[in-house]
Amino acid sequence: MKSFRVFPVLCFFLLLPVSSIARAADPDKRDPASYTTSINVVGSAVDYRNNFIERLIVVVNGDRQVWVGNGSKLLKLGEYKAFPLERAKSGKPYDAGQRYRILLPDGSNEMFFVTAIGESVPAPVER
Fold first, then answer.
1. Keywords, A to Z (predicted)?
2. SS (H, E, C) 10-59
3. Using an 8 Å Cβ cutoff, are 38 and 81 in contact?
4. What is the rounded CA–CA span in Å between residue 92 and residue 95?
5. Residue 48: inside a domain, yes or no?
6. What is the pLDDT, as a whole number, of residue 87?
7. pTM score, two decimals?
8. Spatial distance between the Cα atoms of 114 and 97, rounded to a whole number of angstroms
9. Mind giving me the DSSP string for 51-88?
10. Counted domains in the chain
């Protein structure tokens, strides 16, 4: 019966180094120097009827994209810094799925998912 009590402790100590390596590979979310991708938010909307889904139209390296995140704030248009998180899990070269973290002016950050790219992205409304 002692082996059943030792097993969870053994698993914890074996998996601890793996989780530290995974965290070390991810950029520090609190360090502004980690946010190296320049983005331009050209459209922003919040869907209050659908659990406060935040929708951004973003220009990254000249490509228009739609990013979706959970948030209740209407992000101001303008330049921001972001860093890409892990690519989609499919591992297929044609899969353009991506997640980003945006650094906000107050030092906080928010995560967004790319949900549309290319011609499917609506143009921002001219004022």
1. Signal
2. HHHHHHHHHHHHHHHHCCCCCCHHHCCEEEEEEEEEEECCCCCEEEEEEE
3. yes
4. 5
5. yes
6. 67
7. 0.69
8. 6
9. TSEEEEEEEETTEEEEEEEE-S--PPSEEEEEEE-PPP
10. 1
